[in-house]
Amino acid sequence: MSGTHKIGVFDSGLGGLLITKAIRDYLPDYDIVYLGDTLNVPYGNRSTDAVYAHSVAAIRYLFEQQDCTLVIMACNTANASALRKMQQEFLTRHYPDRRILGVVVPTLEEAHEMRHKRIGLLATHTMVMSNVYEEELHKIDPDIELFSQSCPLLVPLIENDGMKWIEPILDEYVQPLICANVQSIILGCTHYPLLKNHIKKALNGADIKLISQDEIVPAKLMDYLHRHPEIDDNLSKSKNTKLLVTDMTTAYQKTASQIYGEDVCLQKVSVAGGEQ
Question: Per-residue pLDDT for 274 more than 60?
């Protein structure tokens, strides 16, 4: 017998739709609510305080208005700027029975299992400057070298129907990682799996593996639910998916369908701020 609560997925924009679709395909019975903060995208050039405030408002909305008991924080920048504080302070103070799961550590666990010692990272500027990938990676294996590349132009192009300009920009971003002789590249933003084929082309035949969160998170989530049956038992399983955004444009609707791989209907919602 299923419960009444849902799985939430939160991202700063539309990139997390890739993870939502992957979860939908991997765990088809579960009810999922996606929230993309398209009003404030991208988070990658915002202050830590701003990212935290936007994340709190979004997670609170998913908890209180959408009956989510477990939220995947798909936004890598929010993982760096807000996740730990939200887990340790926000949840403890306001929602001790709810859970927020990140995507950084599962991604690094996957990278470590590949036994590569030279790993590249494509990420937003804020994500690179946070050093969170490097810090968490060295907790797993201090001998791994991480080579990070800031990619400030990718998310705005993806979100605003600018894919026709992607390839020369990707060439510039990927080339330093090729020169560093990395063995694999982490796609450190939920938008970037959409660019996998473009990135492979930019690699120009180099034998470099791509580590993509849409291929990692669903299995990690299923494992988490198996280890926490008290949470799984409270999740509703009616095969429903709801896709919400905080701002709506024609370009967002078009991009959302391209990312999700089928025509989708976005719903615009108002996400108010609140106590942090």
Answer: no
**Model confidence over 169-202: pLDDT tens digits?**
999 999 999 999 999 999 999 889 989 999 999 9
Numbered ranges of CATH 3.40.50.1860 in the chain = 6-102+217-268, 104-214
Pick the CATH number of 6-102+217-268 from 3.40.50.2000, 3.40.50.1860, 3.30.1050.10, 3.90.1150.10: 3.40.50.1860
* CATH 3.30.70.20 is the classification of domain 104-214: no
Written as one string, the DSSP assignment of 123-174 is: E-HHHHHHTHHHHHHHHH-TT-EEEEEE-TTHHHHHHTT-GGGHHHHHHHHH
Q: Single out the catalytic residue among 68, 151, 179, 189.
A: 189
User: Could you confirm whether 189 is annotated as catalytic?
Assistant: yes
Chain centre to alpha carbon of residue 144: 23
Please classify residue 75 by burial: count the beta carbons closer than 10 Å to its beta carbon, then call 0-12 exposed, 13-18 middle and 19+ buried.
buried
In sequence order, what are the residues at sequence separation of 6 or more whose Cβ sits closer than 8 angstroms to the Cβ of residue 16? Answer: 9, 10, 34, 36, 74, 75, 190
Highest mean pLDDT among 89-98, 128-137, 161-170: 89-98
Catalytic residue among 68, 75, 151, 179: 75
